């Protein structure tokens, strides 16, 4: 991923600096998905450096919101699923009209999935006993967004994404539990 981003930036460095226009954007979004066939949400943030209002290189992160008390793995309390990943992304922006555009992006990063005792059961445990099971994973997230301009710097949009992940080795859990499609909304603030 780093080599791809470096070659991408080097290509622009060879062009005339006066022709390259730089900008920034930040976005926040939420996607509906599932975790073990139950409704779940992913909260996403991104920040990127925009070249010529078309190419973007940046960083992004996603975290799972799955608010359910689970107990199938333990008999001394309940626990929650916690998952998050972050990484670098590349994006291409297609201008449709002055008020609409489409973006295609690919984020590649690493993350952690873990089962952690709920707070009321952690008080009786040592700090190293709070986590029931944990594993790291590699995530690749390909997404498309349709964006609509609502003010000079603000955009709102709908997105769809597909996440591929490396297998996670967690007790009594499908090793590809994070490989899912999701869809949601995104809010973006741009500085060009």
Structure described in brief:
Helices cover 9% and strands 61% of the residues. With 192 residues, the chain is mainly β.
What is the beta-strand fraction?
A: over 45%
Spatially, the strands of the biggest sheet line up as: 1-2-3-4-5-6-7-8
Tally of DSSP β-strands: 8
What is the third-level CATH name, the topology? Porin
| Stretches with pLDDT under 50, minimum 5 residues | none
Radius of gyration: 19 Å
Tell me, rounded to a whole number, the average pLDDT: 90
Distance between the termini: 26 Å
What share of residues is helical?
Answer: under 10%
**Can you write the helix and strand succession as a string?**
HEEEEEHEEE
> What is the global morphology?
elongated
CATH architecture heading: Beta Barrel
**What structural class results from the helix and strand content?**
mainly beta
Task: Characterize the largest beta sheet: strand count, sense, and whether it forms a barrel.
Answer: 8 strands, antiparallel, barrel
Number of domains: 1
Please characterize this protein's 3D structure.
The chain has helices at 2-14, 119-122, and strands spanning 22-35, 38-51, 55-65, 79-95, 100-117, 131-149, 154-165, 180-191. The protein has 192 residues and is mainly beta. The chain has one domain (2-6, 22-191): Porin (Beta Barrel). An 8-stranded antiparallel β-barrel has the order 1-2-3-4-5-6-7-8. A hairpin with a 2-residue loop joins strand 1 (22-35) and strand 2 (38-51). The two termini are 26 Å apart. The mean pLDDT is 90.
């Amino acid at each position: 991923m780093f080599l791809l981003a470096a070659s991408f930036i080097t290509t622009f460095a060879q062009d005339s600096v006066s022709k390259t226009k730089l900008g920034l954007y930040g976005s926040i979004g939420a996607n509906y998905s599932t975790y073990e066939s139950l409704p779940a949400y992913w909260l996403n943030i991104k920040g990127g450096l925009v070249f010529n209002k078309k190419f973007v290189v940046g960083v992004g992160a996603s975290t799972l919101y799955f608010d359910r008390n689970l107990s199938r793995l333990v008999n001394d309390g309940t626990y929650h699923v916690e998952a998050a990943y972050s990484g670098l992304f590349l994006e291409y922006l297609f201008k449709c009209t002055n008020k609409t555009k489409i973006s295609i992006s690919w984020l590649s990063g690493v993350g952690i999935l873990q089962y952690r005792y709920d707070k009321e059961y952690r008080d009786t445990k040592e700090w190293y006993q709070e986590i029931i099971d944990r594993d790291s994973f590699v995530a690749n997230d390909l997404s498309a967004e349709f964006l609509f301009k609502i003010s000079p710097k603000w955009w709102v949009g709908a997105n769809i994404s597909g996440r591929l992940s490396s297998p996670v080795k967690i007790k009594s859990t499908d090793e590809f539990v994070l490989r899912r499609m999701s869809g949601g909304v995104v809010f973006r603030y741009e500085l060009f």
